[in-house]
Design brief:
This is Cytosine deaminase. Pfam families: Amidohydro_3. The relative contact order is 0.15. The chain has 13 helices and 17 strands. Helix content is 33%, strand content 20%. The protein is globular and about 65 Å long. A seven-stranded parallel beta sheet has the order 6-7-8-9-10-11-12, sandwiched between helices. The chain has a four-stranded mixed beta sheet with strand order 3-2-1-4, with no helix packed on it.
């Protein structure tokens, strides 16, 4: 007898009519027509059952702080950084925890159960690290929170960042971060990449750097990051986030850069919503999107995970906690509109990001954690198109959030009385 049995599921790989059995918080069977009894049975009704959404790039210390201390009137990255610099000295541990927990509630309601959050360690008080380490423990039953020691003001440019970053790692922060393009010179940026990779190698940690978040095609710290990854033996443990300068680089240089990244087994984490909002601010027209070269990265076999980055904070006044919003924007901005393209984007907010974060027991195979989401959609492409309701959100075999299916009632002569948006799924040619 199983604890939970989900019947008639469609899986992201296209299998239909699949049952998923759960015992002791793990998936015990994935096959059609499971006949055993179960303490709870959920009929998926042919809808898509997905592993949880995973956000590999977020700033939980800043989330939901929009308007503090004032609004970002220019909407630029630099004004956002300046605003955060004003807000940071006033932050209290209690307020940080309250905002972070509220955001995690929203995330879970969207089927998001793993987040990598960068934690600003530029303030020597390290109140941000203290708060989010506590949040990590509080949300552990329903969300995996991975923390990155992030020197927002620059590892060398920030007057106390070097010592503070080391202390944050000593406190238990998981990943080494950096922001080489924000150092005072290109040389300082390159030095910071080397120093931070050395720290990660010495401590046995992963690396995730804000890298080349600029329109300047000569900002090429990702090349240095690839080289230092190989030098320190960090292959498979390093991600470059944003990488927006790649949008503006010439094609010949990129033809050299991408193989270097692949050789280093690096991952790439674009953040489509905020990259498109913040980049190209010095352009008139033509105006650059500022989003890195997602199709080419994928073609090279470089793991791509899409991040949300911000929700209602000094940099970005929008955001819903829904990774399908992120994938939806990426499909449009990259012009990746085929069914296969959309499946790849769905992977970029699920399995790819789980791989980048090194999540254990993730997936829909036997033995994995019984973490999954039932969506009001029939396949990954439709999920990105609709950004549908999460009918059930399941953690370790227990339903922790649910939303009623979206149904519109019509009063039209001769037409149906009710409309289900998921019923409009096209029949794809094989």
């Amino acid at each position: 007898m199983f604890d939970l049995l989900i019947r008639n599921a469609t899986l992201p790989d296209g299998r239909k009519g699949i049952d998923i059995a759960v015992q002791d918080g793990r998936i015990a069977a994935v096959e059609p027509g499971i006949s055993a009894e179960s303490g709870q049975v959920i009929d998926a009704g042919g809808l898509l059952v997905s592993p949880p959404f995973v956000d590999p790039h977020f700033h939980m210390d800043a989330t939901l702080s929009l308007g503090l201390p004032r609004m970002n009137t220019s909407g630029t990255l630099l004004e956002g950084i300046a605003l955060w610099g004003e807000l940071r000295p006033t932050l209290s541990k209690e307020a940080l925890i309250e905002r972070a927990l509220r955001y995690c509630d929203l995330a879970v309601s969207k089927g998001l159960m793993a987040v990598r959050s960068h934690v600003d360690v530029s303030d020597a008080r390290l109140v941000t690290a203290e708060a989010l380490l506590e949040v990590r423990d509080l949300v552990k039953p329903y969300l995996d929170l991975q923390l990155v020691a992030f020197p927002q003001d620059g590892y060398y440019r920030g007057p106390e960042a070097e010592a503070a970053l080391g202390r944050a790692l000593d406190m238990g922060v998981d990943v080494v971060g950096g922001i080489p393009h924000f150092e005072r010179t290109m040389e300082d940026g390159a030095r910071s990449v080397e120093a931070l990779c050395r720290i990660a190698a010495d401590r046995g940690l992963m690396v995730d750097m804000h890298c080349d978040e600029t329109d300047d095609p000569m900002s090429r710290h990702v090349e240095t990051l690839a080289a230092q990854t190989v030098r320190f033996g960090l292959q498979g443990r390093v991600a470059g986030s944003h990488l927006t300068s790649m949008h503006s680089m010439d094609n010949y240089y990129v033809s050299k850069l991408l193989p270097l990244m692949a050789e280093a087994q690096m991952a790439a984490i674009p953040n489509p919503l905020i990259n498109i909002m913040l980049q190209g601010r010095h352009d008139t027209y033509p105006k650059r999107r500022g989003l890195t070269r997602i199709p080419q990265l994928m073609e090279m076999g470089i793991p791509v995970g899409l991040g949300q980055d911000c929700v209602m904070d000094p940099w970005y006044s929008m955001g819903t906690g829904d990774l399908l919003d992120v994938a939806h924007m990426a499909v449009h901005a990259t012009q990746m509109g085929s069914v296969a393209d959309k499946s790849a984007m769905f992977d970029a907010v699920t399995v790819n990001s789980a791989r980048i974060m090194g999540l254990e027991g993730y997936g829909l195979e036997v033995g994995c954690h019984a973490d999954m989401v039932i969506l009001q959609a029939q396949d990954p492409a439709e999920a990105i198109r609709l950004r549908p309701n999460r009918i059930k959100v399941i953690r370790r075999g227990r339903v922790i959030a649910e939303t009623a299916p979206e149904v519109s009632r019509l009063s039209l002569d001769g037409r149906p009385e009710a409309l289900d948006p998921a019923s409009y799924a096209p029949v794809h040619a094989s």
